């Protein structure tokens, strides 16, 4: 069976499974349709016989109840004609409903029950209608009619209700039986469908298992063959075993194709193993420093061939770079720093090497240029030093004679200053005594001034008292006049009182005269006191002025005395200095001779230094921008910083797998240096702007390279970015050199 299946294509096997599955589905669908049709017919019969019968019975029962209610309404005095019409309509409906019930009756027993119920009902409603019609013949006693109706027709109504209950029960039993029959039919059709589906599915599963087993066996053989081939590729086995014959189906065709690919892959794998050995040998030699080896094998695999060409090109670039480095370092060892060896085609780390070497060469050229300039200046200064030594010796002799004259003049000056100092001290003591006397006079004048103030205040008090006395005398005089008038009015009895009043008036007049004299004297005393007060005030101001002048004189005398003492101290120091100067003059003579000797030795050293510098070659074009030593070392460090900036970010690409943000052109040392010198004179113009632009491009270029490398951009894209990056780096280096030139007053 399996051999037969291996000859059938997998597509046909799958097609057979689909046909079998379709047949099972069609079979199940037919069973479902038959079951649906049969059950639908049974449901229609059930609906017509059972549901319609039950519905007709219930409606009949409702109409009978309605009929009974109308008869009661008539007997209760309702509209006779209207209710009789309702009775006729209800009667006809009941007849129609009984006919519908007879049509839905299936067996004899139920027909008998239905017939009995109809007879009982028709007897009741016919009799009741006839009784109600008799009421049309004339007035009747409705109470008597109701009692007659209750006595004779209530049993008929009861019999009719009992018959209807039996009929309803019969119809409900019939509905229950038909419902059970319907459920049994559904169960039967479900069993038939389940058995048929199970048989179809079982057959389909058996066939599918057989086909799956054959496919699984073919897959297992193919898997084992491929695993063996993969073990061969992994180096676990020396040879790859081909797959066995899998038949003529798709697996067989696939096995044949895999066998062909295994042979081709085995050949390529062997070639790759040989290529790995070749690459390992070349790389091992290169790691030991032997860069002249190359891969000479021609591979059939174009990828290996391209890889070998790429490796050879890589070795060519490394050999060229190291060759240039060796040549440049040899030149450095021989003192030649005039060549930088920078290539405009270098990129990446190769460009960093070239730029670093160029920076070293430029830095050394600037340093040796400085040394050369300093050497020339040192030689010139050494000649000046030698001539200055001779001049110093002559000056020392002249200085000795001048010192003798200076010593005599200083002795005379010392005597005069000592006399001035003694007189100044005497004047200071006299001024001090005068100042004390002026202070005492000022105190006495102050006391006199205060006494005069007291006299003025006392005089004012006397004037006020005299005014009071004068006022009292005036009032007394008025009172005496009034008393005289009163005495004259009294006649003889008032004569004695008139005498007294006259004496009082005389006394008041004398008091007024005395007060006037006292007031005149007080006024004169006040005027004298005012004059004395002004005199005391002027005297006190004069004493104060005298005291200030004496104080100023004392201060000046003290200054003169202090200056005289300082002059004495200075003259003594001058004497000491003259003595020391005489000693130093002698020492200067010796020093002058030593300076001349040292100057000659320095000249010898500078000649040796010039001879050494003549062996060193450097770029003389840097001389126009080596005036600022600090800027030379700062710019050299800034160049190296940007080489390290590139290389450090290149190294991170080996370990980082997500894009990071590099420092921007304001965060690095060069950016900070630019910000610090933005207001410098050299920070104006095209050279400065070119430096800013190139510097920003370096940082953005490194960021672009990181993003492109981590996004697996093409080599052409990476090469374009690095080309622009290295061009910007050269722009930064050239810009820094241009700024140094501008700082030294050069022109671009």
Name of the CATH first level of the domain at 387-611: Mainly Alpha
* The named CATH superfamily of the domain at 387-611: Methyl-accepting chemotaxis protein
DSSP helix fraction: over 70%
- Which CATH architecture of the domain at 387-611? Orthogonal Bundle
Order of helical and strand elements:
HHHHHHHHHHHHHH
Care to count the β-strands?
Answer: 0
Which structural category do the helix and sheet elements fall into?
mainly alpha
Might you state the CATH topology name of the domain at 387-611?
A: Helix Hairpins
Question: What are the low-pLDDT stretches, counting only 5+ consecutive residues below 50?
Answer: none
Q: Rg, please?
A: 74 Å
Q: How is the main sheet built?
A: none
Q: Kindly, what is the distance between the CA atoms of the first and last residues, rounded to a whole number of angstroms?
A: 96 Å
Work out the helix count: 14
- β-strand amount: under 5%
Furnish the topology, listing elements before pairings.
Elements: H1 2-6, H2 10-75, H3 80-103, H4 108-134, H5 142-152, H6 154-233, H7 250-287, H8 302-333, H9 348-490, H10 495-614, H11 629-652, H12 669-676, H13 686-710, H14 715-743
């Amino acid at each position: 069976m399996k051999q037969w299946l291996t000859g059938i294509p997998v597509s046909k096997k799958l097609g057979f499974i689909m046909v079998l599955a379709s047949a099972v589905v069609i079979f199940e669908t037919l069973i479902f349709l038959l079951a649906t049709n049969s059950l639908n017919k049974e449901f229609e019969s059930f609906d017509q016989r059972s549901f319609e019968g039950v519905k007709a019975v219930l409606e009949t029962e409702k109409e009978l109840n309605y009929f009974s209610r109308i008869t009661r309404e008539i007997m209760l005095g309702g509209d006779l004609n209207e209710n009789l019409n309702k009775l006729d309509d209800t009667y006809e409906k009941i007849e129609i409903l009984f006919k519908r019930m007879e049509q839905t009756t299936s067996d004899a027993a139920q027909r008998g029950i239905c017939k009995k119920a109809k007879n009982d009902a028709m007897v009741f409603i016919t009799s009741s209608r006839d009784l109600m019609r008799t009421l049309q013949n004339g007035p009747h006693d409705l109470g008597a009619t109701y009692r007659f109706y209750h006595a004779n027709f209530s049993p008929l109504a009861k019999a009719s209700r009992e018959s209807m209950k039996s009929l309803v029960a019969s119809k409900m039993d019939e509905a229950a039986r038909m419902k059970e029959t319907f459920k049994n039919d559904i169960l039967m059709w479900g069993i038939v469908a389940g058995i048929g589906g199970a048989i179809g599915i079982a057959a389909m599963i058996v066939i599918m298992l057989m086909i799956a087993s054959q496919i699984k066996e073919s897959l297992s053989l193919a898997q084992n063959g491929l695993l063996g081939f993969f073990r061969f590729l992994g180096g676990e086995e020396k040879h790859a075993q081909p797959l066995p014959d899998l038949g003529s189906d798709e697996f067989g065709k696939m096995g044949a194709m895999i066998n062909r690919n295994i042979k081709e892959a085995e050949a390529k794998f062997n070639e790759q193993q040989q290529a790995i050995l070749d690459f390992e040998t070349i790389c091992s030699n290169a790691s030991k420093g032997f860069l002249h080896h190359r891969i000479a094998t021609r591979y059939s695999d174009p990828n290996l061939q391209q890889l070998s060409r790429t490796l050879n090109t890589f070795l060519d670039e490394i050999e060229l770079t190291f060759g240039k480095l060796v040549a440049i370092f040899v030149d450095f060892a021989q003192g030649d720093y005039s060549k930088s060896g920078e290539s405009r085609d270098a990129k990446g780390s190769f460009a960093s090497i070239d730029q670093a070497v160029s920076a070293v060469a430029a830095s050394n050229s600037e340093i040796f240029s400085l040394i050369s300039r300093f050497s020339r200046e040192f030689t010139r200064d050494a000649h000046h030093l030698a001539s200055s030594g001779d001049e110093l010796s002559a000056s020392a002799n002249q200085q000795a004679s001048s010192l003798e004259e200076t010593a005599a003049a200083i002795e005379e000056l010392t005597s005069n200053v000592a006399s001035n100092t003694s007189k100044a001290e005497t004047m200071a003591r006299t001024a001090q005594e005068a100042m004390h006397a002026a202070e005492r006079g000022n105190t006495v004048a102050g006391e006199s001034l205060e006494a005069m103030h007291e006299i003025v205040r006392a005089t004012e008090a006397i004037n006020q008292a005299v005014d009071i006395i004068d006022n009292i005398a005036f009032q007394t005089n008025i009172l005496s006049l009034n008393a005289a008038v009163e005495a004259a009015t009294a006649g003889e009895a008032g004569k004695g009182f008139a005498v007294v009043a006259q004496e009082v008036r005389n006394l008041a007049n004398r008091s007024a005269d005395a007060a006037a004299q006292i007031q005149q004297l007080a006024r004169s005393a006040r005027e004298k006191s005012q004059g004395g007060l002004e005199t005391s005030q002027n005297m006190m101001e004069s004493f104060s002025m005298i005291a200030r002048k004496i104080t100023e004189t004392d201060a000046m005398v003290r200054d003169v005395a202090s200056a005289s003492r300082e002059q004495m101290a200075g003259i003594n120091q001058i004497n000491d200095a003259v003595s020391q100067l005489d000693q130093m003059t002698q020492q200067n003579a010796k020093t002058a001779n030593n300076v001349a000797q040292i100057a000659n030795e320095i000249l010898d050293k500078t000649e040796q230094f010039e001879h050494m510098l003549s062996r060193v070659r450097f770029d003389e074009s840097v001389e126009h921008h080596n005036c600022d030593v600090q800027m030379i070392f700062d710019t050299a460090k800034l160049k190296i910083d940007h080489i390290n900036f590139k290389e450090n970010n290149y190294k991170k690409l080996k370990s980082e797998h997500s894009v990071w943000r590099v420092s921007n052109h304001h965060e690095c040392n060069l950016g900070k240096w630019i910000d610090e010198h933005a207001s410098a004179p050299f920070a104006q113009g095209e050279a400065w702007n070119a430096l800013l632009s190139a510097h920003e491009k370096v940082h953005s270029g490194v960021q672009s390279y990181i993003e492109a490398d981590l996004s697996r951009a093409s080599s052409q894209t990476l090469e374009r970015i690095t080309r622009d990056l290295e061009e910007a780096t050269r722009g930064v280096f050239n810009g820094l050199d241009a700024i140094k030139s501008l700082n030294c007053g050069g022109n671009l």
